[in-house]
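Supplementary Methods, section 5.1.

A reviewer requested that the exact input to the structure prediction be made available. We therefore reproduce it here, unchanged from the version used in the analyses.
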Amino acid sequence: MPKILIVEDEVELSHVMAKYLHAEGYLTKEFATGLGVVQWVKEHQPDVILLDWMLPGKDGLSICKEICAFCDIPIIMATAKIDEIDRLIGLDSGADDYVCKPYSAKEVVARIKARLRRLNKLEQKDNDLILVESQMCVHFSSKKLQLTATEFNLFKLFFDNPNRIFSRQHIMDRVYQDYRVVSDRTIDSHIRNLRAKLNDLTSNQELIHSIYSVGYKYEPF
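The structure derived from this sequence is encoded token-by-token as follows.
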């Protein structure tokens, strides 16, 4: 059964989340402090982590960065911080998703399920949309879309992380790993070209959405 790590200093909220997850058949582990979390993750490798930002002992942002340095476990950051800059900081620290308190336990469970479905897929596909990494192309129904290396890596980043908002800086760090100098305009240009190609492939079904003053995200069909 999938293991979900809940790191939350509001004990009652943590217990409520655990109950909802148990009802779905998941195992849970709860921490009410940031101390010991990173070591536990190294030893037990949970499938998804629900991580509060403000914690006693060690804050969630530091924990997130440490975990991302040695593994790719999906992290959903939960916090009462609602300012745009805080969302950007959380996402740039390596978090895969972001929920603001007070949140719906049912919504968080749905987000966790989405992460688990993505992890368990043997083939990268979204309905009839399939990525073929060896050919750097995308198949949709009977059509094939050839992409440049940059376009493919960019779309794969979005495809692997549905509904996650990526800032331009995060895209630079994840897609352009050869340390070339890349500007915001370059990012926007590649995304504009990619969106145009995908729209032609899917008959104008918008897949990559602009989030004003924040970045971009991919929304599956």
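The domain at 125-218 is CATH 1.10.10.10 (Arc Repressor Mutant, subunit A). These observations are discussed further in the main text.
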